[in-house]
Design brief:
Pfam families: SEC-C (PF02810), YchJ_M-like (PF17775)
Organism: Undibacterium seohonense
Shape: globular
InterPro entries: NTF2-like_dom_sf (IPR032710), SEC_C_motif (IPR004027), YchJ-like (IPR023006), YchJ-like_M (IPR048469)
Helix content: 10-25%
Radius of gyration: 14 Å
Structural class: alpha+beta
Family: Belongs to the UPF0225 family.
Order of helices and strands: HHHEEEE
Strand content: 35-45%
Strand order of the largest sheet: 1-2-3-4
Protein name: UPF0225 protein H8K52_07520
Amino acid sequence: MSKTICPCGSNKEFEQCCQRYISGAEFAPTAEALMRSRYTAYTLNDEAYLRATWDERTCPKERIVDGGASKWLGLEVKKHEAQEKEAMVEFVARYKIGGKAHRLHEKSRFVKFDGKWFYVDGIYE
């Protein structure tokens, strides 16, 4: 039986990586782990997880996922800086829409409330 490699780029098995956060079994221990699990949630079109891990003050009202229009191709984490309650994760995500390749380079901000990390917003490079 073959194991599924996690889409987040960790080279770990999905079950041992982002699935435990997406399933709600555990909370992501770092902003980087949360960012990786959010990328994986985008590959799975998991609207509920994306909303649950987005700071309610900045979470959009409109739909977050595109219902499978995007084909996510890979994630590269460039940098992770964290203090006790705030963090920044810089990454590059590659994807295709309608056969056209795109590259998202973002510096994402995260905050920690009640022991849990949340995505706030990002600056696009």
